[in-house]
Amino acid sequence: KKKIAVMTSGGDSQGMSGAVRAVVRQTIASGCIAYAVYEGYEGLVQGGDLIKRMQWEDVRGWLSEGGTLIGTARCMAFMERPGRLTAANNMVEKGIDALIICGGDGSLTGADKFRAEWPSLIDELVTTGKRTKEEVKQFKHLNIVGLVGSIDNDLSGTDATIGCYSSLQRICQAIDYIDATALSHQRAFVIEVMGRHCGWLALMAGVSCGADFVFLPENPPSENWEEEMCSIISKHRKLGKRKTIVIVAEGAHDRQLTHISPDMVKDLLSNRLHLDTRVTTLGHVQRGGTACAYDRMLATLQGVEAVKAVLEATPETPSPVICIVENKIVRKNLMEAVKMTKEVAAQIAAKDFAAAMAGRDAEFAE
Ligand code: ADP
């Protein structure tokens, strides 16, 4: 019976547990044996109890859970070949040669590297006497399939990542709470939301909450942004709006690209417009709570598709990543999606914002 392992890696997001549930159950339903690797690549390197056989009932109730119930970690050892060699040995020991990873672009890059290196890792296990030729006979290829778990919606090639809509929902709820008090006192709030390289959360929160102004890493403010923002906000106030909401994506100041910090915006609103202004950093609330309906659906459909992709893979098939494009679950080339994502991040760093915006929407061959 084929053994398929699932793991979550990198930053957590709502819906990751739902994805694990879908993979485990689809694996069992397909007549295969399911494993979960706990604590991300750390579990793969440490092996033992961190690579656990999973039964149908082990994932009961996981669909609605936030975060990841099998844990996630950042693992330095896996960045180096000796760590990956130990990981390969642990997989051979358990008889696993297929791995479904739910994570961000870093985790998916590591996975594809592992797959590319796999034949040489297996050879090394034999030449160093850790495994016999007989033991590794069936481990010629490693099958890798990616699922994208991220609150930032920052992977090129897919319309939504698992977690982004739950996080957006959380931001909207928080801003609704703030709205109530802002309205009462006619205050202005500058709200910092997550998203280092990608302003999707900030932009969609702006649209969904009717914010007055939004700062994104992809779209730097103009030279005269101060006048622009103040005149828009004054206009809104003159129209009778009793509150002001300005959203700043973490990446708009964190990466020193646009140098817009929430405090700068606050000072401007206080000093120039004489608004009673407060700064609220939403922080990890955005990663918390249960998965919204969309993320439960996405995690389930994509988890099922990931298992199908494993079972249909040949040694020649490049590693796929499971995406959603115009409401259809599709497989795309994992490394192309990662490459495009990195190109967009580089374009933002180089302040080539037009190219970055085009890259975000870009389609590419499967
Ligand atoms: P994310 O998956 O959210 O982008 P990271 O970039 O932190 O998060 O990656 C998570 C983990 O994936 C890292 O701690 C490391 O163990 C592994 N990883 C990331 N990049 C690589 C790489 N180039 N080679 C091997 N492993 C990697």
From TrEMBL:
UniProt binding sites for substrate: 150-152, 187, 194-196, 250, 278, 284-287
Binding site for ATP: 11, 74-75, 104-107
Positions of the Phosphofructokinase domain: 3-310
Binding site for Mg(2+): 105
UniProt-annotated location(s): Cytoplasm
Active site residues of this protein: 152 (proton acceptor)
Region of interest: N-terminal catalytic PFK domain 1: 1-366
Reported function: Catalyzes the phosphorylation of D-fructose 6-phosphate to fructose 1,6-bisphosphate by ATP, the first committing step of glycolysis.
Family that this chain belongs to: Belongs to the phosphofructokinase type A (PFKA) family. ATP-dependent PFK group I subfamily. Eukaryotic two domain clade 'E' sub-subfamily.
Subunit structure of this chain's protein: Homotetramer.
Protein name: ATP-dependent 6-phosphofructokinase
Species: Cryoendolithus antarcticus
Organism phylogeny: Eukaryota, Fungi, Dikarya, Ascomycota, Pezizomycotina
Parent-record interval covered: 18 to 383 of 799
